[in-house]
Write a structure and sequence with these properties.
By secondary structure, the chain is mainly α. Helix content is about 80%, strand content about 0%. It contains 9 helices and no strands. Helix 2 packs antiparallel against helix 3 and helix 3 packs antiparallel against helix 7. The two termini are about 30 Å apart.
């Protein structure tokens, strides 16, 4: 019910087309890269998926997070416009339910983004490389790991957007955080678990210990962000 309501809210905002077109554009990055510079990668040793992810994922992950920030800003801009969010507070529903409904919708769009992007990587793997028997399993594992690590960035984007009535303020904060994440060293664990830095981590080449730590950090950060959102909403309601 909450998901269908959120879908109706964003129907006229361009939310869905932005993610669909954006997903296709991001998926085209490895294809264009291989079409132009295939000689640089086909001679490298290692699995095709690892080679392609190492070569393209940093740019792809940054664009993914920017889409999450933009999507979150669009969703909450509609709520704050003409004080619509204040009117909804008098309805028999909790304000945090609205946040979780938006989180589900944005997560679904993130899932669709990853499907497009992994399809592009798989296409490049099949077209330019010789694939092995473990090709499909490796692709699924990489997809699942990427999806798990994008959840904190989805929730953090919504968390920022929910705090700012002015969409440009939340968009500016989100963009600054994204570019800050690109500057953080990936070999420092505490810095690498910044919500906007986690999607830059890849399964390829990661040790079992690092993978377990990153997945645990994703669960903990997602839980903390949700609890913080509930707390702030209750504080805001008590001060009105």
């Amino acid at each position: 019910m909450k998901l269908s309501l959120e879908c109706k809210k964003v129907k006229r905002t361009g939310f869905v087309p932005i993610f669909l077109v954006g997903g296709l554009l991001v998926a085209a990055i490895p294809i264009v890269n291989m079409a132009v510079r295939s000689d640089m990668y086909t001679g490298l040793k290692g699995s095709p998926i690892k080679i392609l992810i190492d070569a393209n994922w940093q740019m792809m992950a940054m664009l993914n997070i920017l889409f999450f920030v933009l999507g979150a800003c669009l969703m909450y801009h509609g709520e704050y416009a003409d004080h619509a969010i204040e009117k909804m507070c008098v309805l028999p529903m909790k304000e945090q339910d609205m946040f979780f409904g938006k989180a589900v919708l944005l997560t679904v769009m993130g899932f669709i983004l990853l499907i497009f992007e992994m399809s592009g990587i798989l296409f490049c793997s099949i077209y330019w490389f010789e694939i092995s028997e473990s090709f499909v399993l490796e692709g699924l594992r990489s997809f699942g790991y990427a999806f798990a690590l994008l959840l904190p960035s989805v929730l953090f984007s919504l968390f920022i957007a929910s705090l700012c009535e002015n969409m440009w303020v939340s968009l500016g904060i989100g963009v600054i955080c994204v570019f800050l994440a690109t500057l953080l060293p990936t070999d420092q664990f505490l810095l690498s678990i910044f919500p906007f830095a986690m999607p830059f981590q890849t399964l390829a080449g990661a040790t079992r210990e690092v993978i377990q730590k990153m997945l645990l950090a994703s669960v903990l950060e997602s839980s903390i962000i949700m609890v913080a959102e509930i707390f702030i909403l209750r504080m805001r309601r008590s001060m009105e």
